[in-house]
Specification:
Oligomer: single chain
Helix content: 55-70%
Radius of gyration: 19 Å
CATH superfamily: Farnesyl Diphosphate Synthase
Strand content: under 5%
Largest sheet: 2 strands, parallel
Structural class: mainly alpha
Number of strands: 4
Length: 368
């Protein structure tokens, strides 16, 4: 286990101060306590390793051959994502049928089936297969996490939240169905996610299904996704938000559901506790990595390239990694997070770990 000393330009807290899930502090939204600053500690506060000087920040997000170089030569990442993505899309289509009341089901399907990279469900399936399970055991949970992710996007885009008009290259849900139906469609997807996991998971011990449902609930509740969203709202427009607070927001708002996706797959696939925790740490790293890259893309790509409104964080005066660190240092942080994530997979079968290694690289080097 190691930590990363990025120098005096990084001031933030450790994501991994504790062996299990980190808990958000209790504080007033109007008077948040910016705790003392310290360098990023990705996995453990006990040791420190500086980023080597030979790492070129300019190469981050531009290595087209990185995925192939670090995974077995026989592994075809594009084919894997296409096959798993198609399986997920078919399962999602079957999970939400058009029925009465038709308008809310249309709204649910509109956002759920709008495309997207399906990173979270594929992570869930890949983690399940890594520990010896098969796709069928993880598919209901994979659909469940995508339903919840879609809910979070619908609600995120609302005028009372991020007030966005474009998502996945299409008008946002409330622009098509109205704010009232959009809220209810998100609520319905949230409820359906848990119902689907509970009723559609087969071939898995009931205790593991219950454990998985509890894990997912924690990842999106007041100590997970909701916590990050609330602190994000309270931080908008403030001038004294530091990297410590930014990390808290994204470890909860973004990384928590990615972590839940991986951990659910490991649990349902029959993983031992030690394997589940290693995959949890892997997922926390790629979860924060996902947000760092997202922040970089928001200021370096166009709306057409992203499929959503570019530069909206800057307009909304939100704190981001490029705003605090600059784009180059943010890219350097992304590379180190990617390395730390893949280090957690070193004890697994390389062939079975190949999809997760490739997914980590995909998150690091994606262009939208």
């Amino acid at each position: 286990m190691s930590s990363v000393n990025l120098g005096s330009w990084v001031q933030t807290c450790s994501m991994f101060n504790h062996a299990d899930r980190s808990r958000p502090p209790s504080y007033s939204m109007f008077n948040p306590p910016w705790i003392r600053s310290r360098s990023i500690s990705l996995l453990s506060p006990r040791t420190s390793r500086s980023i080597p000087s030979y790492i070129s920040a300019s190469t981050v997000l531009t290595k087209d051959d990185e995925i192939q170089n670090e995974t077995p030569a026989t592994f075809d990442f594009k084919a894997y994502m296409l096959q798993k993505g198609n399986s997920v899309n078919q399962a999602l289509d079957q999970s939400v049928s058009l029925k009465e009341p038709q308008k809310v089901h249309e709204a649910m399907r509109y956002s759920l089936l709008a495309g997207g990279k399906r990173v979270r469900p594929v992570l869930c399936i890949a983690a399940c297969e890594l520990v010896g399970g098969d796709e069928s055991k993880a598919m209901p949970a994979a659909c469940g996490v995508e339903m919840i992710h879609t809910m979070s996007l619908i609600h995120d885009d609302l005028p009372c939240m991020d007030n966005d008009d474009l998502r996945r290259g299409k008008p946002t849900n409330h622009k098509v169905f109205g704010e009232d139906v959009a809220v209810l469609a998100g609520d319905a997807l949230l409820a359906l996610a848990f119902e689907h996991i509970a009723s559609a998971t087969v071939g898995v011990a009931p205790a593991r299904i219950i454990r998985a449902i509890g894990e997912l609930a924690r990842s999106i509740g007041s100590e997970g996704l909701v916590a990050g969203q609330v602190v994000d709202i309270g931080s908008t427009g403030l001038s004294d938000v530091g990297l410590e607070q930014l990390e808290f927001i994204h470890v909860h708002k973004t990384a928590a559901l990615l972590e839940g996706s991986v951990v659910l797959g490991a649990i349902l696939g029959g993983g031992a506790d030690e394997e589940v925790e290693k995959l949890r740490k892997f997922a926390r790293c790629i979860g924060l990595l996902f947000q760092v890259v997202d922040d970089i893309l928001d200021v370096t790509m166009s709306s057409q390239e992203l499929g959503k409104t570019a530069g909206k964080d800057l307009v909304a005066d939100k704190v981001t990694y490029p705003k605090l660190l600059g784009v180059q240092k943010s890219r350097e942080l992304a590379e180190q997070l990617n390395k730390e994530a893949k280090d957690q997979l070193s004890g697994f079968d390389p062939e079975k770990a190949a999809p997760l290694i490739a997914l980590a690289n995909y998150i690091a080097y994606r262009q939208n």
